[in-house]
Prior knowledge:
- The structure holds two protein chains of two kinds.
- Chain A is α+β, with helices and mostly antiparallel strands.
- Chain A has helices at residues 4-14, 24-33, 52-64, 71-83, 90-98, 186-225, 237-261, 268-293, 304-316, 321-338, and strands spanning 103-105, 111-115, 118-127, 134-139, 142-147, 153-157, 167-175, 182-185, 227-228, 231-232.
- Chain A contains ten helices and ten strands.
- In chain A, the strands form three sheets. Chain A has a four-stranded mixed sheet with strand order 1-4-5-8.
- Chain B folds into three domains: 3-86, no CATH class; 122-230, Butyryl-CoA Dehydrogenase, subunit A, domain 2 (Beta Barrel), CATH 2.40.110.10; 242-381, Butyryl-CoA Dehydrogenase, subunit A, domain 3.
- In chain B, strands 1-4-5-8 form a four-stranded mixed sheet.
- Chain B has helices at 3-21, 33-50, 68-80, 90-103, 106-117, 231-239, 243-256, 259-267, 274-302, 310-333, 353-365, 370-381, and strands at residues 122-125, 141-145, 148-159, 166-172, 183-189, 195-200, 209-220, 224-225.
- The A-B interface holds A 216, 220, 223-224, 231-232, 234-237, 240-241, 243-245, 247-248, 251-253, 255-256, 258-259, 273-274, 276-277, 322, 324-333, 336-337, 339 and B 258-259, 262, 265-266, 271, 274, 276-282, 284-286, 288-290, 292-293, 295-296, 309-310, 312-313, 316-317, 371, 373-375, 377-379, 381-388.
Amino acid sequence: xxxxxxxxxxxxxxxxxxxxxxxxxxxxxxxxxxxxxxxxxxxxxxxxxxxxxxxxxxxxxxxxxxxxxxxxxxxxxxxxxxxxxxxxxxxxxxxxxxxxxxxxxxxxxxxxxxxxxxxxxxxxxxxxxxxxxxxxxxxxxxxxxxxxxxxxxxxxxxxxxxxxxxxxxxxxxxxxxxxxxxxxxxxxxxxxxxxxxxxxxxxxxxxxxxxxxxxxxxxxxxxxxxxxxxxxxxxxxxxxxxxxxxxxxxxxxxxxxxxxxxxxxxxxxxxxxxxxxxxxxxxxxxxxxxxxxxxxxxxxxxxxxxxxxxxxxxxxxxxxxxxxxxxxxxxxxxxxxxx
Amino acid sequence: xxxxxxxxxxxxxxxxxxxxxxxxxxxxxxxxxxxxxxxxxxxxxxxxxxxxxxxxxxxxxxxxxxxxxxxxxxxxxxxxxxxxxxxxxxxxxxxxxxxxxxxxxxxxxxxxxxxxxxxxxxxxxxxxxxxxxxxxxxxxxxxxxxxxxxxxxxxxxxxxxxxxxxxxxxxxxxxxxxxxxxxxxxxxxxxxxxxxxxxxxxxxxxxxxxxxxxxxxxxxxxxxxxxxxxxxxxxxxxxxxxxxxxxxxxxxxxxxxxxxxxxxxxxxxxxxxxxxxxxxxxxxxxxxxxxxxxxxxxxxxxxxxxxxxxxxxxxxxxxxxxxxxxxxxxxxxxxxxxxxxxxxxxxxxxxxxxxxxxxxxxxxxxxxxxxxxxxxxxxxxxxxxxxxxxxxx
Lengths: 339, 393
């Protein structure tokens, strides 16, 4: 059994903290080589059968270095394939996907529907479509793989504020899905979509908290080094208290991250609420990081803004914060009423 | 048997005992402070007899010798069964025990520890009007005359001192050198001549704390804990022994009390109001996070990987969640909560949200204020430099 700490150490060695936004293509190759993509599928399908906490550790560490590699959509697609009971050549698909043949998918937002057996979709949040052969598409009652080079499938790279991820808008204009590429249908498809939304939320939460930790470290180091009024800024209590509050929020959110990652009974709403908490903490940390850096924090040459832009993108991905808060409130009301 | 099986067996044992012995209607029996104290004494005596009152004491004591994992199980079950928290005996079973057991003489152990189990209660005489967050600047003076210390000064914020038999007292025996070096630790009889206790009226109508005035009070030299001038070290060694468990228990009690807010939401027909649902959802996640960090902290302590500052993070997380919880209840409750009626003492749930809200401040102030905890997190965990010490007007 692989220990979480071993995974963390391996990740930190492969992606050292001082190299933010490491080259995407090299990272991607390295991750496939290190076997990260095969960590979740069960052993009988050729995977390592590791738990959700293992992939959470990877997303956490990749968040720390603002990784640009498409490990998140790839892992979601692999999960979907592993769960499929109708995909032909499932083992073959998993093997290819685990060795680096990218299948991407949308990280939330946009619209997709099935009309007369054909999929029409506008997916404005699909990472690394340039590197991928297929996109995993969810519509009510259907989950299917669609080749990105198929007819009536267009992908167009989007210019984002956050440059640590490459996002594409993928559009499908009445594309009839290939029968052999269908992953799930009917209720099974909807259940799978719901489960993967939970996985996406958990992964984004981990990404947020890895990044938030790095942003705090960056800020504290800066405050220790920068001198004004003949003393390091880190000596001023007003700044110390703000850093302490940031640390408190991050450490507490992290405790919830690991608790829900390890809890098989956590609902999709639990994971969405966790993602929202983590993204709001990340947002707060990066806002404060820029403010405490002063003018240098607003310059392109400093790293602060990279974290802030990723935090804001994470906040917008995988469902809106207000919706998750509301869903969590509704869920708690129902739980209490039925207790 | 594996450790896990043992823990589950203990859980079953505590649970079945509680099913028979849980004090029924204790909230109604705690409507005045005196009644509350009586409820506390009865409940403590019952728990001592059952062997669940002092799981953290050493193994020679009946019901003692339990590891942190077992203690956690006991507290979880007490919280789950909604039993009263042991407040009156808290300073006795935690601070007095830790101090006397770790640093006291054999005679002190013999004299004081068994008496705690028989119901003798202790209070803390630490803070002073001018020594709060800066505790080491305390001024209450003790002069050694013959074989007795003669004490003059004032203590404040002593929890339930008006009900205490004895006091853990920090005094100044020297003004030379660093201020920590002149502090001595004494065990004082609250009935000694010259001791006057004056309860403090709090904003929510409680008298949870008291002032202690000391006027030529004599304490024998045999009542000193540690050497003269070693009081600061003794206090530091024994002060935070309980923090993890208390906050774990409190966090779970708060999680278990979330139904009270759900009830308000329904009562005021706000269950379809997205704004209220958001506030509620956000609060539940915040409380879940407080429970998770309290659990993680205890686990790290059990595994010996607690970091400096971790306890402060747990405290600040809990106290902010508690403030948010009682504020949401207060806002939802509207005018109803502004009418002053009977409240339950010594509980998270007093029966009135305005009182709960005012109570919630205790946790951001007492036991090392939120600001002191921030200093600890910044200086010890984030290793940010301390401010220069010398400063004059």
